[in-house]
Design goal:
Elements (H helix, E strand, L loop, with lengths): L1 E4 L5 H11 L7 H13 L3 E8 L2 E13 L4 E11 L8 H15 L5 E3 L5 H6 L18
Parallel strand pairs: 4-5
Antiparallel strand pairs: 1-2, 2-3, 3-4
């Protein structure tokens, strides 16, 4: 298994994985295409892909942003998805480890994320529960 930065040719595979990740929204292919290129090219964004046998089996989308509360930049994991057949094989751990390395290279002082389905996984990686996540949907795409 190999974890690396995503490239343009990974878009189709990541889109398919993202389609399975989405629970509260419907993945819009046009919106995905409109976002993939700019996200992949942004130095404050980390798009990773995990490959096994030359096939994408997982991805991670994360960001680095400045904060006041942490006295500097933090890494934020927005999305992590591993195909069902590759879960519990180390793919998620490898994606998170590579993101943590990227965040450290960017000078981040912590990595945070929100989850409702994988708390045990993140605890096993050394993450601690810190806050409650709230959201307010402002607009939906049809």
């Amino acid at each position: 298994m190999n974890v690396r930065r995503a490239v343009t040719s990974d878009a189709d595979a990541i889109e398919e994985l993202a389609r399975r990740f989405v629970t509260s929204f419907r993945l819009d292919p046009a919106a995905f295409r409109g976002s993939f290129g700019p996200l992949s090219a942004d130095a404050s964004v980390c798009v990773l892909v995990a490959e096994a046998e030359a096939q994408a089996v997982g991805y991670l989308l994360g960001f680095m942003h400045l904060t006041f509360y942490a006295n500097g930049p933090v890494g934020w994991v927005e999305e992590v998805m591993v195909s069902e057949e590759h879960r519990a094989t180390g793919v998620g751990r490898a994606l998170m480890t590579r993101f943590e390395e990227w965040a450290a290279e960017k000078g981040c002082v912590l990595v945070g994320l929100a989850t409702r389905r994988a708390a045990a996984f993140y605890r096993a990686l050394g993450y601690e529960e810190s806050a409650t996540y709230f959201r307010k949907v402002l607009a939906t795409r049809t």
